[in-house]
């Protein structure tokens, strides 16, 4: 099986006998480790994750992932010192490790167990919108806990639909999406366009929309983003109108001190119909959440790759 097959339009993630080939045995060994960790007390697992996160930070220092995070933080928080940026980046990689080592728990344990590991703030906002006959698009910034929070909502009878970037390894792609869809919902590959996503939202599934990737100048407008500006998708208000939906910001984090996933929900965004206003409202929601928990955000993305002057700020 071609490793690039997952990127083909119309690809359906499913189990294949080819996944038993020796070239995948390393992945299966890693899965076995996650299965074991799924039943380990979270305190022990998080101690291991903290050690792994610090090790990863040291290993990646000077490499592209660390560099991207540092560049993003320099542009978004220019008043921060180098030491402050380094502290947040290390905490970010610890958070990555905690959520990754804990994904087996989300993938395997019962819905009752998963719900006990979560705390919601303002879940009634979603329920009230649905009770009024409105569909819902959740505006979910890229945090390391996004997969866990989507799966949790399924356990409350709120299946979600979302778009994702397929993994080039078909086994990893199948495993991730089997986990995401274990309680219902549907993942749509970005290559298939937005139509299928909006169709599912109109049917009543929660639209799980990740707003903060940079899709280039042609598809974006420039609006403020923290202390800089960002090429931002402007069409969220149109998507909401087409799907008869309200747009509700949601921010999931992993709170290690309590060992729970905390999910904060804000009232629906209000749009004027102007593209830049729509994009700015989206970024304002991200700023509100991320300022409180900067270590939870996926700073390793090329969030600011499109610049007015054409500069590649990530080039070293």
Q: Strand order of the main beta sheet, please?
A: 1-9-8-2-5-3-4
The beta-strand count equals 9
Strand content: 15-25%
Helical run tally: 12
Structural class estimated from helices and strands: alpha/beta
Are there runs of 5+ residues with pLDDT below 50, and where? none
| C-alpha-based Rg, rounded | 19 Å
Brief digest:
The protein is of the alpha/beta class and 316 residues long. Helix content is 44%, strand content 16%. The protein has helices at 25-37, 42-60, 64-76, 82-101, 103-108, 111-116, 124-131, 146-155, 170-180, 195-202, 236-242, 275-292, and strands at 118-121, 135-139, 160-164, 186-189, 206-209, 221-225, 228-232, 245-255, 260-265.
Question: Helix and strand layout, with pairings?
Answer:
Elements: H1 25-37, H2 42-60, H3 64-76, H4 82-101, H5 103-108, H6 111-116, E1 118-121, H7 124-131, E2 135-139, H8 146-155, E3 160-164, H9 170-180, E4 186-189, H10 195-202, E5 206-209, E6 221-225, E7 228-232, H11 236-242, E8 245-255, E9 260-265, H12 275-292
Parallel strand pairs: 1-9, 2-5, 2-8, 3-4, 3-5
Antiparallel strand pairs: 6-7, 8-9
Model description:
With 316 residues, the protein is α/β, with parallel strands linked by helices. It is 44% helix and 16% strand. It has 12 helices and 9 strands. The protein has helices at 25-37, 42-60, 64-76, 82-101, 103-108, 111-116, 124-131, 146-155, 170-180, 195-202, 236-242, 275-292; strands at residues 118-121, 135-139, 160-164, 186-189, 206-209, 221-225, 228-232, 245-255, 260-265. A 7-stranded mixed sheet has the order 1-9-8-2-5-3-4, with helices on both faces. It has a two-stranded antiparallel sheet with strand order 6-7. Helix 2 (42-60) crosses helix 4. The longest helix is centred in the N-terminal third of the chain and has 20 residues, at 82-101. The protein is globular, with a radius of gyration of 19 Å.
């Amino acid at each position: 099986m071609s490793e690039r097959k997952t990127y083909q339009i119309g690809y359906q993630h499913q189990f294949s006998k080819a996944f038993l080939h020796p070239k995948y045995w390393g992945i299966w060994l890693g899965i076995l480790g996650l299965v074991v960790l799924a039943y380990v007390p979270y305190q022990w697992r998080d101690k291991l994750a903290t050690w792994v996160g610090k090790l990863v930070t040291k290993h990646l220092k000077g490499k592209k992932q660390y560099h991207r995070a540092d560049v993003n933080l320099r542009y978004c928080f220019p008043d921060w010192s180098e030491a402050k940026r380094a502290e947040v980046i290390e905490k970010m990689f610890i958070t990555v490790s905690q959520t990754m080592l804990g994904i087996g728990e989300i993938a395997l344990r019962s819905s009752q167990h998963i719900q006990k590991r979560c705390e919601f703030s303002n879940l009634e906002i979603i329920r009230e919108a649905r009770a009024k006959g409105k569909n819902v698009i959740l505006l979910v910034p890229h945090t390391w806990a996004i997969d866990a929070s989507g799966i949790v909502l399924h356990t409350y009878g709120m299946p979600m639909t979302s778009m994702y970037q397929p993994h080039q390894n078909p086994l990893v792609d199948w495993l991730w999406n089997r986990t995401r869809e274990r309680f219902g919902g549907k993942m749509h590959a970005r290559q298939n366009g937005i139509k299928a996503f909006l169709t599912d939202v109109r049917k009543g599934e929660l639209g799980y929309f990740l707003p903060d990737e940079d899709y280039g100048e042609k598809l974006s407008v420039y609006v403020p983003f923290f202390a800089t500006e960002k090429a931002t998708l402007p069409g969220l208000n149109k998507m909401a109108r087409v799907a008869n939906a309200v747009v509700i910001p949601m921010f999931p984090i992993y709170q290690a001190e309590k060992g729970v996933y905390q999910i904060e929900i804000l009232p629906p965004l209000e749009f004027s119909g102007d593209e830049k206003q729509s994009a700015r409202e989206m970024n304002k929601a991200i700023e509100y959440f991320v300022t409180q928990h900067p270590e939870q955000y996926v700073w390793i993305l090329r969030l600011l790759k499109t610049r007015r002057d054409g500069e590649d700020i990530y080039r070293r």
